[in-house]
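Appendix C: a fully annotated inverse folding record. The material below is reproduced so that readers can follow the format used throughout the book. The structure is listed first as tokens, followed by the designed sequence.
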């Protein structure tokens, strides 16, 4: 059986740290916590779970802090979590089984990362992250923000899930954005990956002009990962829409098709383009294409609502505009299957009932 060192970096996480550690403490063999300057009770909470709590001066570099935590590990594999992560009970059972069965030739195990949830607790944003790493390989974290470890070696892509359960805040933290802006001020060149994540941070903060600039700059390097290229086309369409540059939307969405097979979010955005122009018949075709798709087996970001709920609910809307209420009802119920209990489905049921005279479904 393999052994696992949980290696974490924390700062002022008193509200969530115990929740995280309770969810994983019975699965790992060692807990290492590196504190980067807490002024609350974070360190005391950490010390109630492990004696291996260390101080590390924060130098605006997440990779440096994570590498410090990794350097303290002594088990076969290193594992990382953020303080506001939670290891679900089913995942804990799966990881315990994996500890007994993992082929020692495996260097890295990835896990699914559910980072955003709807009001019903359903995941709406899913990524794949390196999560277990063979210690003797000496893997090191790279990039001061949105840090990562290159997937080098014998990789196992597992279906084990980690939940990122951030306490709700007003707006987005500017911490990551400030790190990128500082890099920009110092004149240190951005790698293609850094251009991409800087653009994402700018977009999240509504800085549409700068976000579009850096997304475009990223694509122009022609060195990006395919999944990031496709995501950039999608994100640029959002930026162009916010800026009123509607003439740029369709070309950038179609450009995504140069990289790989169509993605549901791209098809839906093309549908929205035609819907905005009241061309409901054409919009319907694109939403139907998206509705027919299955989530791809990819390590890229998955915007889950585009793979089921959104295209079906939009097919309902388009059919309504086209006067085909029977098919509108069919697609509305398909949307309900993907997202039970959502208010929009019930509103559509009542509207369709008022038009057709049929009682809405319960």
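Designed amino acids, in order:
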């Amino acid at each position: 059986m393999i052994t696992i060192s949980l290696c974490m970096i924390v700062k002022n996480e008193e509200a969530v740290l115990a929740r995280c550690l309770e969810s994983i403490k019975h699965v790992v063999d060692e807990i290492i916590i590196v504190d980067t300057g807490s002024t609350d009770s974070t360190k005391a909470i950490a010390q109630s779970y492990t004696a291996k709590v260390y101080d590390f001066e924060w130098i605006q570099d997440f990779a440096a802090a994570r590498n410090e935590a990794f350097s303290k590990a002594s088990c076969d594999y290193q594992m990382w979590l953020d303080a506001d992560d939670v290891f679900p009970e089913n995942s804990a059972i799966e990881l315990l089984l994996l500890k007994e069965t993992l082929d020692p030739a495996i260097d890295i195990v990835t896990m699914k990362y559910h980072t955003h949830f709807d009001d019903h607790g359903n995941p709406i944003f899913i990524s794949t992250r390196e999560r277990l790493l063979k210690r003797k390989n000496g893997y090191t974290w790279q990039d001061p923000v949105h840090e990562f470890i290159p997937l080098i070696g014998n990789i196992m892509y597992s279906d084990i899930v980690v939940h990122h359960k951030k306490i709700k805040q007003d707006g987005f933290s500017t911490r990551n954005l400030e790190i990128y802006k500082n890099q920009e001020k110092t004149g240190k060149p951005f790698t293609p990956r850094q251009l991409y994540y800087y653009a994402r941070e700018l977009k999240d903060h509504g800085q549409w002009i700068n976000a579009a600039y850096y997304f475009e700059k990223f694509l122009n390097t022609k060195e990006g990962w395919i999944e990031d290229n496709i995501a950039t086309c999608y994100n640029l369409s959002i930026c162009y829409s916010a800026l009123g540059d509607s003439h740029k939307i369709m070309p950038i969405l179609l450009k995504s098709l140069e990289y790989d097979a169509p993605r549901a979010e791209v098809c839906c955005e093309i549908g929205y383009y035609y819907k905005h122009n009241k061309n409901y018949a054409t919009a319907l075709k694109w939403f139907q294409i998206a509705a027919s798709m299955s989530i791809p087996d990819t390590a890229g970001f998955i915007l889950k609502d585009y793979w089921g709920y959104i295209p079906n609910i939009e097919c309902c809307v388009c059919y309504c505009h086209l006067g085909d209420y029977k098919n509108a009802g069919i697609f509305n119920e398909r949307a309900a299957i993907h997202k039970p209990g959502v208010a929009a489905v019930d509103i559509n049921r009542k509207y369709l009932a008022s038009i057709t005279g049929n009682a809405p479904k319960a």
